[in-house]
Design a protein that fits this description.
elongated; eleven-stranded mixed beta sheet; Rossmann fold; six-stranded parallel beta sheet; Dihydrodipicolinate Reductase, domain 2; single chain; Alpha-Beta Plaits; 3 domains; about 425 residues; alpha/beta; binds L-homoserine
């Protein structure tokens, strides 16, 4: 049988991994897919750089659109990243009847609904395993392996750069800026690491997981996104003393009122497996009603781990491309006509528990005032620590863990606590998840 013909758009780190792994494992891949999978050409802006990345023997072009729509191409693998021209090229490929594989989480988080609708209309597949958690096959697991379940929540450490930074802050007690500089030196963080450290990259990924977990459209604009830029090493230390680790957790959960979709630094009990995911590794926990908790762990980035997911998609499409489009696995796991309009909840309606650090003047009655406000707002305290301030004899840090409450109640309590004249600095508020 004729091999499946692939066009690669982009010749960077992921493309080089795809070329290498396709070559190295070509016999096994052919045995798995039923036919060969062959790269016909690569589109790249800088030919010299591309040659260094993918070698000398593949055809190279700078005509991205021409390659994406070429007659002899079956699948277009978009490995360029960014929104434009990736969006326009993916849509052109779909219109030309090509199947698409993409590793581009930002593109799908922002324009997934448009792209999946276009693919549906053209009867082609758009596969995106590599867009979430690099080499971990979490899309396939959620969409197919866990299809029996009513998914209750999905929680992930899905940004390796921030996890590396948090691990360094905890292990060596360094501050955020030092840990970030080290991540940059080791090549984990981008020169402009904003998407990583501000939580945007993780939010792109959890937005996609949310859509396929609950069968709702892709809604990045509704996600609550908070990064780790302002995290203080002191809070990592206090959390540890209370039995917790701080992770940049991406979370999506179904409740009676709607769906939570949020990324923020989060305290997780140190005894949970996911709390022990260190360095640049990724992990996703899925809670299904039948399976219970299922943990997926692995490399979330890198040339060959990401290529592993891209090639799995190429094999899938090779196996399925002759199937009737109506009988393929739906892009977002649920039939396109059966997507739900369950609302994504605003943060005040989210229920979670909290860590608070309150810098106060160390005098009679201060703690009583704070606990009175929490009680007035219907909040119950779970644990309490008091630690002297490092820089002032008469100041002290009160650290509190609360039981679960509505975020709007916490907002109300914090506004009152912040107004006390014994409270000397902005209160640090972090969310906490038990992940039971
Ligand atoms: N920048 C991402 C991370 C890698 O740090 O995990 C690819 O998504």
């Amino acid at each position: 049988m004729k091999p499946m013909r692939i066009a690669l758009l982009g010749a960077g780190t992921v493309a080089s991994g795809v070329v290498r792994v396709l070559r190295r494992n070509q016999d096994e891949l052919c045995r798995r897919a039923g036919r060969g999978i062959e790269v016909v050409a690569v589109a790249a802006r800088n030919a010299q750089k591309a040659r260094r990345s993918i070698g000398d023997d593949l055809a190279l072009t700078d005509d991205f659109r021409g390659l994406a729509t070429r007659d002899d191409v079956d699948i277009v693998a978009e490995l360029m990243g960014g929104i434009e021209p990736a969006r326009e090229l993916v849509l052109a490929a779909i219109q030309a009847g090509k199947h698409v594989v993409t590793a581009n989480k930002a593109l799908l988080a922002l324009h997934g609904n448009e792209i999946f609708a276009a693919a549906q209309a053209s009867g082609v597949m758009v596969a995106f395993e590599a867009a979430v958690a690099g080499g971990i096959p979490i899309i396939k697991a959620l969409r197919e392996g866990l299809a029996a379940n009513r998914i209750e929540w999905v929680a992930g450490i899905i940004n390796g750069t921030t996890n590396f930074i948090l691990s360094s802050m905890r292990d060596r007690g360094v501050d955020f800026a030092t840990a970030l500089a080290e991540a940059q030196r080791l090549g984990y963080a981008e020169a402009d690491p904003g998407f990583d450290i501000d939580g945007v990259d993780a939010a792109h990924k959890i937005t996609l997981l949310c859509a396929i977990a609950f069968g709702v459209p892709v809604q990045f604009a509704r996600a609550h996104v908070q990064g780790i830029r302002d995290l203080d090493t002191a809070d990592i230390r206090y959390a540890e003393q209370l039995g917790y680790r701080i992770k940049l957790l991406a979370m999506t959960r179904r409740s009676e009122q709607g769906i939570e979709l949020r990324v923020h630094p989060t305290l997780i009990p140190a005894t949970r497996l996911v709390a022990n995911v260190e360095g640049a590794m990724n992990a996703v926990v899925v809670q299904g009603d039948a399976v219970g908790p299922a943990l997926f762990y692995g490399k979330g980035a890198g040339s060959e781990p990401t290529a592993s997911s891209v090639i799995a998609d190429l094999v899938d499409i090779t196996r399925l491309h002759t199937a009737d489009p109506g009988h393929r696995v739906p892009h977002l796991a649920f039939q396109p006509g059966a997507l739900a309009d369950t609302p994504i909840l605003d943060m005040p309606l989210v229920r979670t528990s909290y860590y608070l650090r309150i810098r106060v003047r160390d005098e009679v009655g201060v703690l009583a005032e704070i606990t009175r406000i929490l009680a007035d707002c219907g909040m119950s305290i779970d644990a309490l620590l008091q630690r002297p301030s490092a820089d002032h004899d008469e100041h002290t840090d009160v650290i509190l863990l609360t039981h679960e409450t509505l975020e709007q109640r916490m907002d109300e309590a914090l506004a009152r606590i912040q107004g006390l004249d014994t409270v000397l600095a902005p209160v640090v508020r972090l969310r906490k998840e038990e992940l039971r």
